[in-house]
Amino acid sequence: MNIIEGEEVHAHVVKFGNECSQFVCSVLLGFYVGCRCVGRGRRLFDEMCEPGLILWTSMIRAYVCANCPREGLGVFRKMREAGIMPDSVALATIVSACTQLGNLDIAKTMHGFISKAGIRVDDFVFSALLRMYGDSGSLDCARRLFYEVSPKNVVVWNTMIHQCVKHENLGEAQNLFKTMPDKDVVSWNTMIGGLSQMGQSKEAIVLFHEMESTGIEPNKMTMLSTLSACASLGALDTGTWIHGYIEKNRLNSDRSLDPSLIDMYSKCGSINKAIQVFETVPRVDVFSWTSIICGLAMHGHGKQVIDQFMKMQEAGVQPDDVTFVGVLNACAHAGLLDQGKMYFESMGIYNLRHKIEHYGCMIDLLCRMGCLREAYDLIMDMPMEPNVVVWGALLSACRVHRDVKLSELVAEKMLELDSSDPWIRVMLSNIYVEASNWEGAVKLRKELKEIVSEKVPGCSSIEVNGMVHEFLVGDKSHPQHKEIYSVLEKIQTQFYIGINQ
Q1: Distance between CA 452 and CA 214 in Å, rounded?
Q2: pLDDT attached to residue 95
Q3: Where, in residue numbers, are the PPR repeats (predicted)?
């Protein structure tokens, strides 16, 4: 129903004398909010002589749905002045307004009001209070509240686990998950998703298989998190198995998992399979287009990226900022300088603002084409502060193109951001060596010895016959490490023979 039809119904309500019905007014208010006419809903509310609890709650919910929490709390104050006490539904709505504000003081004040008023708090409201504290930045307050109440239903447990994951306290989340008496699909999804998001992809896949053994049926959210974990690990065999599981259990009937499948196959090195999935999508949306564009760009297929982007435009699908990251990345790898500049500037046509990722792609493109000064000027003109990744790309390019003067300037900028990063001095030292500036190189080497820096070792993973193997830099814990290093030495020898021929 559109706004005109709704107003016609509203007119009939008035005509037949039903405008004083609390229930009818609540429905009308909800309609106006759904049409993004909160002001019209508020006028309807203000016209009521003595609104009851249902209408007060509806008006507060309207402001919450419109993401106007302060106005919602303003209605709550007027409600209290009118002498009306909230029930559990109204309380949950009011607490949601506090959650949107994310203000810890307001959160504590609301909790204090509920406690002093002696209002019975059910599990629904209790979960809302946990979210309120967590989203207000205090996991400690949420934790204290959680342990105060017993017994707790599965919703309360899930809310607390979610808050631990959200605050990146994965250890506590795992302990709660292990000790909770009953788990539902949301419990499993929260933990699998948390593990996947925080880089523990192998553990996420293991937990998925454990979930399967419990008899709880996974849903689309489970599949999204598990596919993401496979993509991060490059676990093609496991990802293919999960794709088969999805098809067998008809979990992708609405095709909402297609973008994740395309992304998984692309990141696992099987771009042809990603294309196959893409070509079976009946109605390609921005997410599927973006997934295949980014996947093709990742595999260096610049021309195909441009072709797909043009088809996307012809289909009338508007790209988002992630789409442009893929397009610009493809231009960088293919050396398409003019096209890259054109696409970078065209983002404004779609009302998209340049983010640091887009600047990073353009700087990469300019550096690859040897336009180092132009890349430097672009960094200096960025509306946001450049990070070490952006500067690092330019410093690497300075070494390739032997631009000592610019490399010194870039290194200085990077050291202002992180003076303890040894890579900056190592890179600049190498540039000095290649330029026969021995004095500068020796000075930097001395500085390096004085810097005490514990770096997290790099980690790589590979899947063989369905098993994921992880390796740290210099790691010898793998049972076949001798054979692995032997093969690596042979590869390295062949590489040097090849470049010297």
Answers
A1: 48
A2: 94
A3: 52-86, 153-183, 184-218, 285-319
Instruction: Name 125's Cβ contacts closer than 8 Å, sequence gap at least 6.
Output: 88, 91, 92, 95, 114
d(CA 55, CA 74): 15
d(CA 334, CA 365): 9
Residue 134 has which token pair?
Answer: 């967590």
The three-state (H, E, C) secondary structure of 114-155, written as one string: HHHHCCCCCHHHHHHHHHHHHHCCCHHHHHHHHHHCCCCCHH
**226 close to 194: Cβ distance less than 8 angstroms:** no
Question: Contact 458/445 with Cβ under 8 angstroms?
Answer: no
CB-CB contact of 470 with 476 (8 Å): no
Residue 156 CA to residue 133 CA, distance in Å, equals: 13
- Tell me how crowded residue 143 is: count the other CB atoms within 10 A of its CB: 20
Q: Which helix (H) or strand (E) holds 415?
A: helix 404-417
Q: What DSSP assignment string belongs to 32-62?
A: HHHTT-HHHHHHHHHT-SS--HHHHHHHHHH
pTM of the predicted model, to two decimals? Answer: 0.76
Residues in Cβ contact with 179 at an 8 Å cutoff, skipping those fewer than 6 apart = none
Q: Are residues 196 and 224 in contact, defined by beta-carbon separation less than 8 angstroms? A: no
**C-beta atoms surrounding 179 within 10 Å:** 8
Strand partners, 471: 460
Name the residue with tokens 């790589």: 460
Backbone angles phi, psi at 467, to 5 degrees: -110, 130
- Domains in the chain, please, with CATH? 183-277 (1.25.40), 457-501 (no CATH)
Other Cβ atoms within 10 Å of 40 Cβ, number:
19
d(CA 383, CA 387): 12
Pair 120, 90: CB distance under 8 Å: no
* Other Cβ atoms closer than 10 A to 253: 9
What whole-number distance in Å separates Cα of residue 135 and Cα of residue 142?
Answer: 10
d(Cα 385, Cα 183) in Å, to the nearest integer? 44
Q: Which amino acid is at 28?
A: L
pLDDT tens by residue, 212-238? 899 899 999 999 999 999 999 998 999
The pLDDT assigned to 501 comes to: 47
* Ranges of residues in the chain whose predicted pLDDT is under 50: 453-456, 495-501
427-486 pLDDT per residue, tens: 888 888 888 888 888 888 887 777 654 444 555 666 555 566 666 655 666 677 677 767
Q: In 3D, which of 474, 473, 463 has the Cα closest to residue 231? A: 463
pLDDT of amino acid 19? 57
Q: In which region does residue 67 sit, left (phi positive, over 0), alpha (psi from -120 to 50) or beta (all else)?
A: left
